[in-house]
Amino acid sequence: MARLDRLLANLGYGSRREVQGLVRKGAVVFDGVAISDGGQKVAVVADLPARLTVEGVPVDPPAPLTLIMHKPLGVVCSHREPGRSVYELLPRRWRARMPGLSTIGRLDLDTTGLLLITDDGPLLHRVIAPRSQVAKRYVARLARPLRGDEAAIFAAGTLVLESEAEPLAPAVLEPLSDHEARLTITEGRYHQVRRMFAAVGNHVEALHRDQIGALSLPQDLAPGGWRILHPEEQTAVFA
Length: 239
Ligand code: URA
Hints:
This protein is α+β, with helices and mostly antiparallel strands. It folds into 2 domains: 2-58, Roll (Structural Genomics Hypothetical 15.5 Kd Protein In mrcA-pckA Intergenic Region, Chain A); 66-236, Pseudouridine synthase, CATH 3.30.2350.10. The chain is 19% helix and 26% strand. It has helices at residues 4-10, 16-24, 121-128, 150-155, 192-199, 231-237; strands spanning 2-3, 28-30, 33-34, 41-42, 52-54, 57-58, 66-71, 102-103, 111-118, 136-142, 172-177, 180-185, 204-212, 215-216, 226-228. Strands 7, 8, 9, 10, 11, 12, 13, 14 and 15 form a 9-stranded mixed sheet that branches. The chain has a 4-stranded antiparallel sheet with strand order 3-2-5-6, with no helix packed on it. Strands 1-4 form a two-stranded antiparallel ribbon. Strand 11 (172-177) and strand 12 form a beta hairpin. Helix 1 packs across helix 2. The longest helix has 9 residues, at 16-24. The model has no long low-confidence stretch (mean pLDDT 97). The structure holds uracil (URA). Residues 107-108, 111, 191-194, 207 line the site of uracil.
């Protein structure tokens, strides 16, 4: 159970005082009845938006909330880096949510594709922890033709990236054409895919992530599009 005023403040509807103002003007309605006391307690359950409205609109989904996004080109995954961020593609109020939303791992400014965003800390850590071995699958368009030895080099588990000491875990490369390959990695080192191709004398011109675990980027999610992740899709991440 949570106090309604605290819950709404944590969902970004304003300070506790501003939420009290919404309550006073009868804008917060629970089970069809306008709330008169912001201190009233409600169960924070997933179907809360079906029962609680603010100014006539279903309340935002409570935590834990996980989103799936088709990250477009030209946006950053960081709250702090300069430039437009993936968070700006979400409703403005969501930037004030507590706990805050974070991307599960990062895609570069010029990488597109499947991105998960969550306020569920344990889920985030479970996806990115190296021991979870969650596979991340990318399609890379390359500046130069594949040489033919890349799959063996990436699979060996001995490749050491520039300025690193630890070899990379084995990765799977599948050529799609002479200038295009699918690469599946289980780690998430800084610019890993671009640096792997640089290590074999190539250069990534375009990079797209199409799968995390057994979860594929839905066909109907256009670049910049997002929606709430279904529970069975969350399960697929670890399949
Ligand atoms: N590897 C990269 O080099 N960039 C990404 O965005 C993701 C993986």
